[in-house]
What does this fold into?
Amino acid sequence: MPKDTFFNLPKDKASRIEEAAIDEFMVYSFEAASVNRIVAKAGIAKGSFYQYFSDKKDLFKHILNQIVEQKMACLSPVMANPMSVDIYTLLKEIYMSGLRFAQSNPRLQKIGNLLIADRNSPIYQEFVQENMSRSDQFFQMLIAKGIERGDIRPDIDVPMISWMISRMNVLLADYYQEHVKLVLDEKYLTAVDQLISFICDGISNKRSDDTCQNESSP
It folds into this structure.
């Protein structure tokens, strides 16, 4: 979290620092990024940088949190009336919003792509863990709406299923980055459809109640 001195800066100066940081982090991974290059581009002294941020990670996480906030803002129209569509259509629209964000904000998306590509790094693991509770709460809300609509069985463990879906989202991005090497393009929606189908129907070729009965039969 930036220090209060950063938030007290004139808006144009704070924006100049943020833009310099975005230019740096969209080209270099967190480890390779340089505070020296950021301050030079922002036109501030290096000593001033440490009056605004504890370290490079502090600035990096500030930029990442801005990306998360902007992505969530893109969901606002989708979530305006969540009861108007079923949970699966809503999930697809959420991913579509993410794709639209990526297409409208290519510089910010490049930062996300680099972070995912460096997913074994401590900064990636830290960022994911810090945002998981927000994701869990979001999916708990969606599942509760689905139960209210009658799209989802009322007997499921909402916290557990929300926890699982949150982590499947992370794993989907990991899988796509590792096997396809592209993130959030049109082809990504094919993988999204597979995930939503899995959430909706599982992998069984039979109805779940029939499968359970067959498995319990002697």
Residues 61 and 126 are 10 Å apart (CA to CA). The first helix runs from residue 4 to 7. Residues 208-218 have pLDDT under 50 and may be disordered.
